[in-house]
Design goal:
Blueprint (H helix, E strand, L loop, with lengths): L1 E6 L8 H14 L6 E6 H4 L18 H11 L3 E7 L7 H8 L8 E8 L6 H13 L2 E3 L4 E3 L6 E2 L2 E2 L3 H21 L4
Parallel strand pairs: 1-2, 1-3, 3-4, 4-5, 4-6
Antiparallel strand pairs: 7-8
Length: 186
C-alpha cells in the first residue's frame, strides 16, 4: 500500500515544506502498515487554476500536468494533506488540486497534518473534510495538529514535539487500517 503525503501550500515563504518534509520522513521511518510513502508537493506539481475542458469524472485529460497528477493520485491508497489555515480554511491550491480529478480519489482514506497559530490549523481540516466526502474519500478523525508552528521551526526545519510524533504514529496506523478495508471497494 502507498501513502501519499501532499504539501498543499504553494505560497512563497510557506511553512508547509518543512512541516511536510518532517512528516514524510517520520512516516517513512514509521510506516505503520504502508509499503511505500511518497511526497507530493503542489508547488512542484504546478497545477494552474483548473484548465481542463472536460468534467473530471470523464477522465478525458488533455494536459500533461493533469495526467501526471491523475497517476499520482490513482496510484495512492491513502493521503495525508499538509494543510495551513488561511482565513479558517485550506489554501486555494488544495481545492484546485481536488477539483482536477474525481474518480481517482474514490474509496481512499485521508487525514491531515495541520499547522498554524493557537488552533494548530485545525479549522482548515474541518472545511477540507466536507469537500473530500463528495469525492468519496473517507476523512479520518485522527490527525496531527501543530499549534504555534513558528515556535517549532529552527533553521528552516520543523522540530516536532513528542505529542506531535505520537499523534502522527496513531494517524498513520489508522490510515493503514482504513486503506486496507477500503481496498475491496477500489
Amino acid at each position: 500500500m502507498k501513502l501519499n503525503v501532499i504539501i498543499t501550500s504553494t505560497r512563497p515563504g510557506r511553512n508547509g515544506e518543512p512541516v511536510g518534509q518532517w512528516f514524510f520522513d517520520h512516516a517513512k521511518a514509521n510506516p505503520g502498515g504502508f509499503d511505500e510513502v511518497i511526497l507530493s508537493d503542489l508547488l512542484d506539481i504546478d497545477l494552474p487554476l483548473l484548465d481542463e475542458p472536460h468534467h473530471p469524472r470523464a477522465q478525458q485529460y488533455t494536459k500533461d500536468h493533469t495526467k501526471r497528477w491523475s497517476d499520482l493520485v490513482k496510484g495512492s491508497d491513502a493521503f495525508v494533506f499538509v494543510l495551513p489555515e488561511y482565513n479558517y480554511a485550506p489554501p486555494p491550491s488544495f481545492f484546485n488540486a481536488l477539483d482536477y480529478l474525481a474518480v481517482e480519489w474514490n474509496y481512499k482514506p485521508a487525514s491531515f497534518v495541520t499547522y498554524g497559530g493557537i488552533t494548530g490549523g485545525m479549522r482548515s481540516s474541518h472545511g477540507a473534510k466536507e469537500i473530500l466526502t463528495t469525492l468519496k474519500v473517507m476523512p479520518l478523525p485522527e490527525q496531527v495538529a501543530v499549534p504555534m508552528v513558528f515556535d517549532h521551526l529552527k533553521d528552516g526545519k520543523f522540530e516536532a514535539p513528542q505529542i506531535v510524533k505520537e499523534s502522527a504514529d496513531t494517524m498513520i496506523a489508522e490510515l493503514a487500517k482504513w486503506a486496507t478495508a477500503l481496498k475491496t471497494l477500489r
